[in-house]
TetR family transcriptional regulator (Actinomadura verrucosospora), 209 residues
Amino acid sequence: MGLRELKKQQTRQAISHQATRLFLRHGFDRVTIADVAAAAQVAKMTVTNYFPRKEDLALDLHEEFVAQPARTVAARAPGESALAALRRAFLEAVDRRDAVIGFSGADFARMISESPALVARLREFHEERERALAAVLAEEGGTSPDDVVVRVVSAQLIGVHRVLFEETLRRTIAGEDHDEIAAALTGAAKDAFDLLEPSLGSYAVRPGP
């Protein structure tokens, strides 16, 4: 990473850090872009250049969140189906207590759940995830991302991730610690992915060499 890129990354992280601090202290809806800019000691335009939407200041993992399922499927091993790859990757994320699947502090989880704007933005993230996964499946299958089967498969797979994400937030707000949540998610993920196994277990299996 060059010096210019490093400086941009540091600025972005500083803005995100100050925004999160203000959101947790005052509530997402009460903090303005101007407040964040002042706390980060940058211009308002600088904030919006890095984060075009206020919601993305709180949900800073947008790009990783959206890309992760599609990237997992694209990189699956020979003989591995899309469903198996996503199951494996999710359980690995549980072991890491990964923030991308919802692990956070209770204050942060409560802030998201209590803000209609953030709940709506998260819904958009899940929809973007679904489209990204559909694009990968369609490209591999030689079909269009608008193909009904591809769209249905993507909706089912991302639907599991959406429900499990919401379950993680719910348990976090209820006061469970990360280990308790991880244990519950492991069982819930097994049940959820098992439900899809009869219909999707043999779908989009990566050909062997």
Notes: The chain has two domains: 3-53, 62-200. DSSP finds ten helices and no strands in the chain. The longest helix spans residues 116-141.
